[in-house]
Amino acid sequence: MDIIMEQKEKFPVGVFPGEDALEMLLVFEQTGTISYANTSARQKLEYEDELCGKNISDIFPNDFKTGKGNAEKLDFEENKLQHLTAYRKNLTCFPVEARIIESSIWPEMYICMANDILEKEFLNREVERIRQEAEDAMKVKSEFVANVTHELRTPVNGILGNVREMLSRSLEGETEKQLRLIERCCNDMNKIINNILDFSKLEAGKFILEPRKFHFRNMLDYVKSNHINKITEKGLEFFMTVSPQVPEYVIGDELRIVQILNNLLSNALKFTALGKITVGVFRTAQVNNKMELFFVVSDTGIGIAEEDRDKLFQSFSQVDASISRKYGGTGLGLNICKQLVELMGGGIDVESEKNRGSNFSFSIWVEACGGDEVLQQPDDVKNKNVFVQTVEESQGAQEDARKYGTKDNRENLKRNLSKLILCVEMENWEKAETFMETIRELTQEAPQEVKRVVLRLKMAIQKENYEKVTAGYEELNQFL
User: Fold this and answer.
1) Which of 4, 22, 194, 423 is found 20 to 30 A from 431 (Cα to Cα)?
2) Which CATH number describes the domain made up of 2-116?
3) What's the topology of domain 212-399?
4) Band of the pLDDT at 366, cuts 50, 70, 90?
């Protein structure tokens, strides 16, 4: 006690080290007698000056045992963060985080540093409650989405089955056309339902990949066969390049790789009216039996402005409202692709300029099958760069074709006009609208009188008016 009194005289209240600290500081002897308490300790424990002389076991009765005599030492843990219960003067209690250390300046003296964690524990309980509520809400939402999508799929498939049954019979032209439209709408609805279901599973963290061994090039041939007819019917070129370094067989989730490629190719087709669509696949790295495959899907379509690229991979997002009105879609496809790619250990990116096309690239990690040659040097990185450079040069050439009056522009206009009038002669109005969209894009920079003719021609095709279409065709040919 004499030593403590000497120290207190050396450090009076208000000057004593730690006097104004936010944490509680209690200095006590081995027997537990408290010799000093700072302002925070006195306030939180609701003592004024009566703490000095009290035993530390009065403050922490559950953690310090009262000795039988003043000379008996207390048993406690040192240099360890502990969760203790502190009692106020009125015997109410609150939780604290405390650490007890031996004093380096006072022999046989100890310092208890304690923080009130009552508010922290309350906030932790609130966070846990909110987290549990969020999990419960997510579960209810996921179950609701799953039930609704399954309920929607049943009537849609019922309609689709009946329509296909009717299409198998001999029908007149107008009836068949209407049934084909219903069939197309049902297929689109099923795609939307599948996207919503996939998005719900991914968001809830319940999506599971199913890797298996498959023939990689057969998978790409399947993807190509799904799209080549629609692409070529639109008057576009389609190229697919696979590096020799990509093995014949790999182990991965074939279904989801197909889903990503289908989505990117469908978008490329949707937003490209002129030029070509290309797909490149390269092997860019290998670690033990895991290899990285790099895919590039490029088009010469409408492109994306730099300020709009961040919106692409957000859920339920389109670049702008006119995109969804003109081209349709839920805005879920690219977000699902992004999450699937990340589940496969890769990433997805886009390079694009307005009216200069887009390059969508993504990488995934798959497992090599036994017997495949191990890639020592990732030489395909160079091949990938050459491919991307060639695609960008092609996109630049297509930009010149969009400039009204250039040689490429006139040739493309004449070619698409010839295909359009052929479709009209064959009464394939839906295909004629595809070529009409290309003609509209090729005449965006044309004089107003040309644009007016294009608009009248477009309206005539929509109304399936043969006489006005042929008149518009002749008039537009005169400008060329």
Assistant:
1) 194
2) 3.30.450.20
3) Heat Shock Protein 90 (3.30.565)
4) very high
